Please model this.
Amino acid sequence: MHDHSNDIALAATQMIFGASDSVLLQARLIDGREFGLELDDLAASVDSRLDLRCLVPFPGMRRDRAGEVDFESLGAAETLGELKRQIQFLEDAGWSVRITPDAPLGSALIVDDSEAIYYSYLDRPAGPFATSEPAEVMHHRDQFDVQWAQALLPEDAHELYERTAAFGTAESTKRIVVASEGSWQRVIEALARSPEELRGLAPRRFEELVAELLSRDGLDVRLTPATRDGGRDILAFGSTPVGNHLYLVECKRHAPTNPVGIGVVRQLYGVVTQERATAGLIVATSRFSTDAHEFAVSVRHQMSLRDYDALCEWLQRHARA
Model:
């Protein structure tokens, strides 16, 4: 499965020249050199009639723990200029380009959903690795599709530099702007196939995913500002023949070994009571502790818990829709 050949450029070139349907490239560096080729050379080697998509990183961008952009980390103006030049070259060569607002933990070149070369920077060695195993290739394709749906359009990247004061304000964070409905469908389908990828989403992106799922269930949703410290991440409004209802939703992106405890459930229940909301919902990527379950049962008409297994079923239901 693994290919540690030093001639990664030759392997990448052969894959690209043999492409008949699609070439997907996720780069960690704006020059794309992980694959032994300058991004310009790689982009110009591909048949422009294919489905060509490239994800490039926004230079220097990082996010804080709340998932919001740390503007002090943005790259220098000349770096932005190089990014814009690369984007223009790619677009002129027939590629669709989007920008990942986070430092990628990996990079990948995926051709025709049948071959992939990838690096995983959390592993040692990081790569390169090559695979033609269908399940592995689809895994990397799914990761790419999730990142693609969450990525910025090129014009948005320039706006981040020009309008940093406005980005991340309460008003802007109330909107779900990650993806169109069609793109969300691909994300949901990819996560339904590989639900472990849920834990790799940035906290804010996980909230947006839950908001999208609630919206598809017929609720009118609004994200609250990401600067809030607990209590509610999403407001979900529902209208029924017996009246209008407000549900407060909190999202917890925990590791499998980190269950959500009773304190979180009690806290949201307190906010539900204080704000006279209809009920509260906690969605988690882990399980809930026994005492958290017991407390939720005691107030079952005002609190609901949706753990990792229930979240996977939720994704499966909308993936089939």
In short: The domain at 8-167 is CATH 3.30.870.10 (Endonuclease; Chain A). The chain is about 35% helix and 20% strand.
